[in-house]
Amino acid sequence: MQTCLANLLFGASIRDVNSGCKAFRTDILKAFELRERGFAVEHEMTAKALKRSRCIYQLPIRYFPRTIRQGKKINFFDGIKGITALIRYRFIP
């Protein structure tokens, strides 16, 4: 749902906004002036990169979901924070 929203808001074709594996040049990352804490920073970085017309290269990864017992840390409220961040950074100048 979060990836679909990011693609809709920014006219992008991101495969997984929550992948957790992102790389930026230091000058670009500093220019983002990140504000979010926790998992929502993933959405903030993606939104700011898309909004500033940064080219995003996507590489395929293997995903093996974990259970809470195995160490899964993201929850429903993190998802809400991520959605809020996408909307916020789409419309903030």
In short:
This protein is mainly α.
Task: Write a concise keyword list for the protein shown above.
93 residues; mainly alpha; 4 helices; 0% strand; globular
* Helicity level: 40-55%
Report strand %. Answer: under 5%
Give the H and E element order: HHHH
**N-to-C terminal Cα separation, in Å?**
24 Å
Gross morphology is: globular
Describe the biggest sheet?
none
- What is the C-alpha radius of gyration, as a whole number of Å? 13 Å
Name the poorly predicted regions: none
**How many β-strand stretches?**
0
Mean of residue pLDDT values: 89
Structural class per helix/strand content? Answer: mainly alpha
Number of domains: 1
Count of helical regions: 4
Structure in words:
This protein is mostly helical and 93 residues long. It has four helices and no strands. The chain has helices at residues 2-10, 26-32, 40-51, 76-91. It is globular and about 40 Å long.
Give the helix/strand layout.
Blueprint: H1 2-10, H2 26-32, H3 40-51, H4 76-91
